[in-house]
Amino acid sequence: MSLIDRDRAVLWHPYTQMQTAPAPIPIVRAESVYLYTEDGRRILDGISSWWVNIHGHAHPRLNAALAHQASQLEQVIFAGCTHPPAVELGERLLHIAPPGLARVFYSDNGSTAVEVALKMAIQFWSNSGEDRRVFAALENAYHGDTFGAMAASDRSIFTRSFEPFLFQVERFADLADLRQLLRTRGREIAGVILEPILQGAGGMILWPPEFVAGARRLCDEFGTLLIADEVLTGFGRTGKMFACEHANVTPDLLCLSKALTAGYLPLGATIATEKIYSAFLSDDRAKTFFHGHSYTANPLACAVALASLDLFEETPVLAKVARLESQLRAGLESLRSLAHVTDVRVIGGMGAVELAANSPGYLHAMGPRLTAEFLKRGLLLRPLGNVVYFLPPYVITETETAWALEQIAEVLRGASL
Ligand SMILES: Cc1ncc(COP(=O)(O)O)c(C=O)c1O
Predict the structure, then answer these.
(1) Which of 41, 281, 324, 392 is 20 to 30 A from 348 via CA?
(2) Please, which residues have CB within 8 angstroms of residue 115's CB and are 6 or more apart in sequence?
(3) Segment (H or E) for 191
(4) Using H for helix, E for strand and C for coil, what is the string for 132-161?
């Protein structure tokens, strides 16, 4: 039996309608920006394996760090124990994070990084003697698939089945909305959560730095917490190490995952200010933050994250993202003139083309059709409905980027969508 047949007999894939989806692509090996299939095809990973990869697949330095750590310590309980990679990663994350962040709490994926932030915010207020039950979040937000993260995410096809179970979140569309909300209900708002600069799964939507700075100012003015979900944007994806830097903003809570381990292993980090942390310090053990996961601060994941930060220090990674950004701009801008292109958006290592659709959204049928068309050409893309985006590992060469942009242009020019 082929890998696909064996897969189909026993597995259930994420975000996949198992009855109608095409067969999964059987990947047996990967290197740099390429994935290699069981039947010998080479496919360019144009979505960084769900936005996680940055230095390329099977990077020798990351592989070596992983192997070395495996020979030392693969895993240990993190309640009551500690280990060198977790401590060093904590130190180095605080060194590069926006100034004023002081404590790193590990978890194991992007959704849990967000859950931890939401729970910390709620308990921060209750430990401080205030009962705050409402969060404010942006329209089109996506923060993950666990219940808290779903509640913070905008209501969509992703959350439809679970709506009665999701806690109350007030939605805002701009700073005027947020001001109005904080003015009327400020004392109930536990925190304002947003994806700074780039909203990902909601459709690769860009926000100006002034918006992020404005949200920070409003949180300060009305005395609530700002939670920055940088699960997608962290580690250079928007051209700065963290998207908050575009606006010189320090959030009260910063959520990281995805590229934290350069796409090798699941790891989440929620970084809090000293003010939040100290609200949990008490002789009263009931004020403890009772949250943890079996693999919290997994040493293998922390070791790869450290090796990834070494690469940021030793090689001009962000300069590479800047060059990629220029090439994406130059390559995609010409598509704006196509009748069915409604917008082109580029930031850092992300380029998106929005296509006209009478019922835009994730489930638009053009998504799977386009995916199949790109795949035929050896390019892995996964449009968000009518939004086609390219978000490759930063190590992609100029020639490889030019090739991918050519495929996108050809498909979109010839498309009968
Ligand atoms: C902004 C943002 N937050 C949270 C998540 C959830 O991360 P994970 O898929 O690792 O749970 C994602 C995933 O795409 C994301 O883009």
Answers:
(1) 41
(2) 107, 144, 146, 148, 149, 291
(3) strand 189-194
(4) CCEEEEECCCCCCCCHHHHHHCCCCCCCHH
Q: Which pLDDT belongs to residue 302?
A: 99
Among this protein's residues, is 320 annotated catalytic? no
Which residues lie closer than 8 Å to 348 by C-beta, 6 or more apart?
198, 236, 237, 238, 239, 240, 321, 324, 325
The separation between the first and the last C-alpha atoms of the chain, rounded to the nearest angstrom, is 36
Is the CB–ligand 1 distance for residue 143 below 6 Å? yes
| pTM of the full structure | 0.98
Three-state DSSP state, 395? coil
Q: Interior CA angle at 327 toward 325 and 328, to 5°?
A: 65
Q: How far is CA 170 from CA 118, 150, 162, 186, in A?
A: 14, 13, 17, 11
- Counting atoms of ligand 1 from 1, which one is nearest the CA of 114? 4
The minimum-distance atom of ligand 1 relative to the CA of 50 is: 14
Per-residue DSSP letter, 233: T
Separation of alpha carbons 296 and 151, rounded Å: 23
Q: Give me the sign of the Cα torsion angle 57, 393, 360, 153.
A: positive
- List, in sequence order, the alpha helices (H) in 230-289: 274-278
The distance from CA 103 to its chain's CA centroid, rounded to whole angstroms, is 20
Q: What does the alpha-carbon distance between residue 260 and residue 265 come to, in Å, rounded to a whole number?
A: 9
Percent of the chain with pLDDT over 90: 96
Nearest to 176 by CA among 150, 211, 204: 211
Closest of 148, 145, 141 to residue 119, by C-alpha: 148
Interval 270-282: pLDDT, tens = 999 999 999 999 9
Tell me what pLDDT residue 416 has. Answer: 62
**How many residues in total does the chain contain?**
417
pLDDT in tens, 356-413: 998 878 888 899 999 999 999 999 999 999 999 999 999 999 999 999 999 999 999 9
Distance CA 175, CA 181 (A): 10
Whether residue 15 lies in the annotated active site? yes
Residues 6+ apart with CB under 8 A from 220: none
**Would you say the CB of residue 231 lies under 6 angstroms from ligand 1?**
yes
What is the mean predicted confidence (pLDDT) over 63-76?
A: 98
- 94 vs 69: CA distance, rounded Å: 22
pLDDT in tens, 106-142: 999 999 999 999 999 999 999 999 999 999 999 999 9
Ligand 1 centre distance from Cα of residue 142 (Å): 7
